Amino acid sequence: MGQTAANASAVAKLGFAPKQVVLELGYDDDVDDELRDQIEDVLGVPLEDEDYGDVVDAVLLWWRDDDGDLTDALVDALTTLEDEGFIALLTPKVGLPGEVDASDVAEAASTAGLQAAACLNLTQHWSATRLVTPKSGRR
């Protein structure tokens, strides 16, 4: 399977679907533009930026070790999500600048009231974790 096909499959596994409204946070010059394009192709609409003022179906969060407090970022992202929404947390792969230890992701997610629903090697440089609220915690 080629890299583009693998990325498209990973985008689907993360849970992105047509017509979802997705807020993108943590955008910088190191993000994977091909992956962003593939997500937008699936959605059929552009990704929204931090100026978007309404609730969203999902948050695409690019996160690096030196970006600050991951727990705070996840809690902030939760405030924008629909009840059944999810956060796609993208972090640099192990060994790359900005990598985030998996235990740090797990701890931050747990503290924010989230759990990992999927972990994927998304691209050559980025790993992804799909974070959701536990079903027992939904109202």
Automatic annotation (TrEMBL):
<dbReference type="InterPro" id="IPR021412">
    <property type="entry name" value="DUF3052"/>
</dbReference>
<dbReference type="Pfam" id="PF11253">
    <property type="entry name" value="DUF3052"/>
</dbReference>
<protein>
    <recommendedName>
        <fullName>DUF3052 domain-containing protein</fullName>
    </recommendedName>
</protein>
